[in-house]
Amino acid sequence: MLAQKNRLTRREDFLRVCTKGNFLSLNGLALRYFPSLDSKTQIGFSVGLKFSKKAVERNRLKRLLRNAVRIHIESLKPGFDIVVIGNAVPKKYDLKTIADVLENLFKKAKLIK
To answer: Residue 44 in contact with residue 84, Cβ under 8 Å?
Structure first.
């Protein structure tokens, strides 16, 4: 599970990142990031109805995304707010595949130390 200090939870922060942040997409996952007001990196997750109408499947994808980010959290640069969006992910994805795609997105965004 992702630590509480690394979670992006406030609606205002989500809106700021989604409206002003930079956007990258790869293999069904999207990433929006924007410099944070704090010196720590916080990450939020969004999986919409476009992925599945069933809450069970959306929540499972969010759990997979949180675990994949937890693997890379130590190597991320501090001072960014990040929103990971999973709307077009194939339902057969597993943790290793999602972690690899996220690592590639973080590298493209130059968010890894």
So the answer is: yes
Beta bridge partners of 35: 80
Instruction: For residue 30, give the nearest of 91, 94, 106 by alpha carbon.
Output: 106
pLDDT in tens, 40-86: 999 999 999 988 999 999 999 999 999 999 999 999 999 999 999 99
Burial 65-81 (b: 16+ CB within 10 A, else e): bbebbeebeeebeeebb
Average pLDDT in the chain? 92
Name the token pair of 107. 């590298």
Are the CB atoms for 72 and 101 separated by under 8 Å?
no
Number of residues that make up the chain: 113
3-state secondary structure 28-90: CEEEEEEECCCCCCEEEEECCCCCCCCHHHHHHHHHHHHHHHHHHHHHECCCEEEEEECCCCC
